[in-house]
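DM from R.C. (forwarded with permission)

"hey, sorry to bug you on a friday — could you get me a structure for this? deadline for the figure draft is monday and I only need the backbone to look sensible"
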Amino acid sequence: MPRHSITVTAYHADGTICPSEHRHTTGGSPLTEGCTGRERFLATCSCKQWTSSPSSTKSYAAEQGRRHRSNQLPAKSAPPPKGPAALRKLLRFDAED
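My reply, with the result:
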């Protein structure tokens, strides 16, 4: 099964990518000269089959990616019973036995 890795990309309002080198305040205001600020974030998966809906925060885009990745994992089967439950299952006989 291919590994699903998620990449979150920031975009300016004009649709260009806001590079990670662009610095911003904690409130999101741009500190890098010429940067118009991050307008939206998109998460994409390496599977090339999924892209998040645009979000206003990086953390929400990353969360959408985590949800996609967890949905791609195979379902885990229930672990076998332990202790008395396992013993009862082993000792159970059909009525025809």
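R.C.: lifesaver. DSSP finds two helices and two strands in the chain.
me: no worries. The first helix runs from residue 58 to 72.
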